[in-house]
Amino acid sequence: MSKTILVVAEHRDGALRQVTYEAIQAAALSSAENDQLHVAVIGHQIEGLTESLSSIDAEKIYLIDHSDLQQYHPEAYAAALKQVIDASNPDGIILGHTAIGRDLAPMISAKLDAGQISDVTNIENVDDQVVFIRPIYAGKAFEKKVFQSSPWVVTVRPNNISAADSSGGKAEVENIEYAKPASLRTVIQNVVRKTSGKVDLSEAKIVVSGGRGVKSADGFKPLQELADVLGGAVGASRGACDADYCDYSLQIGQTGKVVTPEVYIACGISGAIQHVAGMSQSKIIVAINKDPEAPIFKIADYGIVGDLFEVVPLLTQEFKKVLG
Amino acid sequence: MDIYVIMKQTFDTEEKIIIEDGNVSEDGVQYVINPYDEYAVEEAIQTRDELGGSVYVIAVGPERTSEALRTALAMGADEAVLISDERIGSDENTISKVLASYLGSQKVDLILGGYFSVDNGAGQVAIRLAQLLDIPHVGSITKLDMSDSKAKADRDAEGDLEQVEVTLPAVFTAQQGLNEPRYPSLPGIMKAKRKPFKQLTLDDLDIEEAELSPKTARTALSLPPQKEAGQILKGETAEQVKELVEKLRDDAKVL
Ligand SMILES: Cc1cc2nc3c(=O)[nH]c(=O)nc-3n(C[C@H](O)[C@H](O)[C@H](O)COP(=O)(O)OP(=O)(O)OC[C@H]3O[C@@H](n4cnc5c(N)ncnc54)[C@H](O)[C@@H]3O)c2cc1C
Which chain B residue has its CA at the smallest distance from A231's CA? Predict the structure, then answer.
């Protein structure tokens, strides 16, 4: 019997988020040869997205488009996704471990009476059993988990599973008419977009992060310049956010965003465990701190003991030279 | 107003993780209230002080969890309930069903919990519970304003702010920034000893054992791969910077 895996796509500003391609790859890793891939796209005025999706090797794309689904609404999205699930009849469902996925997945799991494995960073296929790997204790340990029943639900941590390539495939697109639930008890009154910046922090390949050591809002300027030269994004520690040097939307860590860039450059960040939980999976960690005893050096691949206000501008210059 | 806080006892965040016989060793470990649940307890107490009513703290877990519940009572919660039974596994599906079974038989106006627990980090139980009780939820809140039958909350969505209104009863999960949890006072600790503390097993709940079979299982546990010790660069700052850029380009090949 072939299985069906349903990936719940996420999009922002008219484009699919990177994590959707990673979820599609996760579906491939959890599949056997004849299994089917279905994709659910929920939102409003999203026809444009089918084009980027048509490049995916999926059997079916379900579109559910309604003005009530313009922005994330827990009850409306759960109801819409349930409609797709009823049509797709999947054995497994995969979402991103994002603001939406973290909220929506447990609702769906409870509705389906399904098991869920959250925040998966890797998937192995061992003797026909799919094993999901996830960090626990703020990344201080990893566990392998398997499902004992079906259907199942998984959320994948962004930037950990490599993205599926989008070469070829012609998925059939099916529109589903949104059946509004009889009573919605939730009203989204306002959404304030604070995430700005040219590069999406949670998907950035390079993150330049500042802590309390940056000392002021102005102190972030050299970090931004370095990030610009590298095509990266600026992040921050809670210390910097609490001190009002930057907005909380830049926060990285257990409370804030979890990032897994190729290079993480921590400037004036001590390396508290709650911060490390949000960046320890980064491929290369660079620490710049004037205190040689700072715990961040214990997890750094390369460390410079020094004043960030001297080091960061020099780095920017050097990268400019090297990158031409 | 009947306010319930679902909470969990976790390792202190700073604890070192040691694996012994395939399990995380609990030898000599310091336990705390899960930090995100602490915000939930504080918010419950503040809400009760403003609007009247009672705060009930409830946990599913081993006997030792009673310490965390006592701490919450010492902070100012009114009553505690511990559901402790070896037949209950640690699967999120099971825990949420046990909680739903108990809470479904109580008069509930408001349920608060943490955004996730710092040990397992799955963030499922509170939201599953809301579904099982068929009430709305708002996840990851940094602000809560209550009125009689409605609540307004600020939800932190990956840094964006969503302002959400829901009818009560409802479930909210607390994100850091919601409040500053108080420390238990000495009189609070004394008073906590006399507050009602109910301990239940599955036999006290109306739940079928079949519903408790776990849907996921752990097959292995490991420590993160040992990273090679990092390199602290040496020399004049300008030389260090040059060396770093070279290493990123040539050794790490990330540029
Ligand atoms: C429940 C909970 C959740 C939390 N979640 C998070 C989270 O998600 N993210 C997070 O970051 N924190 C989080 N924290 C807070 C965390 O514990 C730390 O307090 C915080 O990370 C410290 O920020 P910091 O490193 O910027 O500040 P500090 O610890 O004050 O470190 C500043 C560093 O800057 C260095 N420095 C100063 N001046 C210079 C200079 N000129 N050049 C170079 N270096 C310099 C200092 O040597 C020091 O190491 C959480 C805490 C709790 C309790």
Answer: B255
From B81's Cα to the closest Cα of chain A, the distance in A is 24
Of B5, B224, B8, the C-alpha closest to B116 is B8
pLDDT tens per residue across span B188-245: 999 999 999 999 999 999 998 888 999 999 999 999 988 777 899 999 999 999 999 9
Provide, for chain B, the percentages of residues in helix, strand and coil under a 3-state DSSP scheme, each rounded to the nearest 5: 30, 30, 40
Q: Is A92 near ligand 1, meaning CB less than 6 Å away? A: no
How large is the average pLDDT for residues B40-50? 98
Whether residue A251 has its Cβ less than 6 Å from ligand 1: yes
Q: Quick check: A311 and B240 CB within 8 A?
A: yes
Give domain limits for chain A. 4-175, 201-323
**Nearest-CB residue to A146 (from B140, B216, B221):** B216
Of A88, A98, A101, the residue nearest A153 (C-alpha): A101
Q: How does DSSP classify residue A250?
A: G
- Does B137 sit within 8 Å of A74, measured CB to CB? yes
ipTM above threshold 0.85: yes
Nearest to B146 by CA among B112, B103, B99: B112
Q: Which residues have C-beta within 8 Å of that of residue A304, sequence separation ≥ 6?
A: A286, A287, A288, A311, B232, B233, B237, B240, B241, B244
CA atoms within 13 A on the CB side of A132: 28
**Cα atoms in the Cβ-side hemisphere of radius 13 Å centred on A278:** 24
Residue A282 token pair: 């980064």
Q: Mean pLDDT throughout B100-110?
A: 98
Collapsed DSSP state (helix, strand, coil) of residue B215 = coil
Task: Judge contact between A155 and A101, C-beta under 8 A.
Answer: yes
pLDDT confidence tier of residue A317, bands split at 50, 70 and 90: very high
What is the whole-number distance in angstroms between the Cα of residue A128 and the centre of ligand 1? 44
CATH architecture assignment, domain A4-175: 3-Layer(aba) Sandwich (3.40)
Architecture of the domain whose range is B2-212: 3-Layer(aba) Sandwich (3.40)
Q: Which residues of B touch A291 (CB under 8 A)?
A: none
Compute the distance from residue A299 Cα to the ligand 1 centre, in Å.
15
Quick: pLDDT tens for B146-201.
Answer: 987 899 999 999 889 999 999 999 999 999 999 999 999 999 999 999 999 999 99
Q: Residue A301 class from Cβ within 10 Å (0-12 exposed, 13-18 middle, 19+ buried)?
A: buried
CATH superfamily of A201-323: TPP-binding domain (3.40.50.1220)
Query: Chain B residue closest to A280 (CA)?
Result: B224
Whether residues A115 and B238 touch (CB distance < 8 A) is answered with no
Examine domains A4-175 and A201-323 and report if their fold is the same: yes
The pTM (predicted TM-score) of the whole model is 0.96
- Res. A195: pLDDT tops 80: no
